[in-house]
Amino acid sequence: MSRRVFSILAVLAALTGCRDECDATIPFGQSMDCDHGVGSIGDAELVECDIMMSFTVSGAAEASDAAALIVASIENVSGAPQTVTVTEACPDGLVAFEGLGDGVDYYGSCLAGDCADYGESVAYTLAPGEVLEEEVIIRPDGDDCNAPMDAGTYIITGALSLTEDDQPIVCATSATLEIAG
Question: Which range of residues forms the domain containing residue 99?
Answer without folding.
Answer: 5-176
